[in-house]
Design a protein that fits this description.
There is one protein chain. This protein has one domain (11-64). The protein has three helices and no strands. The protein has helices at 11-21, 37-47, 57-64. The two termini are 37 Å apart.
Amino acid sequence: MVYLKVKENTAQARIFLEFIKTMPFVEFVEKNDIPNAETIKAIEDARKGKGTKAKSVKDLMKKLNE
């Protein structure tokens, strides 16, 4: 996934945005829908199998409080 930041204050930028909106593989997301760097790192770590594993909530709380 690629995030693209476009300043919409010129006619050229608005034309560009209208053009890419016609592409079937382009999806527009609001700025607040983009996770911050800390969240992205946590997601990547989870995908790599890093993190705390627990058998139950009680076990998880015990590990987190250690």
